[in-house]
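Supplementary Text 2. Reproducibility record for the structural model of the 483-residue chain.

All settings were left at their defaults, and a single model was retained for analysis rather than an ensemble. We include the record here because the model underlies the residue-level annotations in Supplementary Table 4.
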Amino acid sequence: MKKRVTRWIVMMAAVCVMMLFPAITGYAAEGTLMLSDPEGMVGGEIPVTVRIDGGGQPIGDVNVTLSYDTALLEFISGTSVEGGDGTLTLTRSGTGAETEMVFEMLFRGLAEGTAAIRVTDSTAYLFSDETLNLTAGESAVTIGPDDGTGGTAASGESAERVLGQESIEIGGAYYNIYENFSDALIPAGFTRSTVQYAGVEHSAIRQDSSGKVMLFMITGEEDPITVLYNESDSTFIRAERVDVSETFYIFVLSSADGSGLPEAFYETSLALHGVNFPAWQNMEANDFYLIYALSSGGVEGFYQYDQVDATYQRYVAPVKTEEPEEEEDTSTLGKVQKIITDNLLILAAAVGVIVLILFIIILVLSIKLGRRNEELENLYVGDDEDQPKLRKKSRSQFVGYDDDDDMQDDEDDYLEDDFEDEYIDDYADSDDGFEDDFEDEYDDYEDDEEEDMKEYVPGKSPAGGTQQPPKKDSYDDIDFIDV
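Retained model, structure tokens:
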């Protein structure tokens, strides 16, 4: 059972490994390595260009080995090129910005014929560490007879560099002007020229479109560098060539202070061929940088570098539209409005403070008025406990008296209202004799009722019995008690 499980595990592992092989090989990209086919003469300098194309993708590390015929060619110098005696090594590391790499080499023709320069080995990677397979070609250098201008060089002696006497500090290092540079170093759009520096004439190159002057400078045994020379103030600016396409390139410059750029750009640095150049990163889009450069067409200014696509494009700053200035109102109302507008925040704060103070004053006065009203109410009304209590009256005190009052009221209502109404309605048309008799009878009835009314006096009689209220002569003598 264990053996079967082990076999299944081994088989599954083998299948997984086989499935990984296509993925591994699929990461290799295709590129090209091309060499130029120049023509020269015996004793003359012959430039050879090596161009590596990454197929539109940023190139990383490159290492190429070349071989050449030492009987026909002599190696003089080259950019990022080392070696001699028939073998040369081209080495460079990309910055992620170049989709192409160009190597310049300079040979001297030793004898007539056609000399071949071949690629014997090459190793290249993209900037993303993917393998770059290079399809390599070879160069055929045609060497013609000597025309009489390079006789001394035909003997095979190496041409030594001729440098200026001035030591010039650039970027923390000291350089000398390279005087006898070859035509292979002159980029397209430039011509050989001279320039005055420190009272001495030096070899230079001048751009046809802009008139800008550049010098080649050397320190020690290193390859020459390119600097932009400002003739007005005799200053030097470090420059580095970046090939954007086969026909377009830019010289990245170490000048410019970034003044005038939008606030979204933050100053930083960008490394090109091992040299740090000032750059400004877009904080709203971190993949974009601005660098200051001179193009092959003579345009000097900021260029936008896209780190993802490794492309360069001329940068145009957004134009700010200025609003037309309003005419100042010199009237009194206009001056007041201007003062209010200029001090709007202060006025708002003052109004807020005033409103707060008024609110506090109203609150304090309300509290005081409430307390004053309470004090006055307690002073004039008093509490319920301080109010005098009235003795509750009993109905028994008015026995015989209330009933007489009620009866008297009823009789009065009857005699004065109902009886008069009945008399008016029923006997209005009767004679005067009947009316007089009825009034006499009514008066006798009232006299009898008055005699029956007695005044109630609390207490007892001297004999121990209940005291009887005395008779009253009329209603005016009756004492009424308000209930």
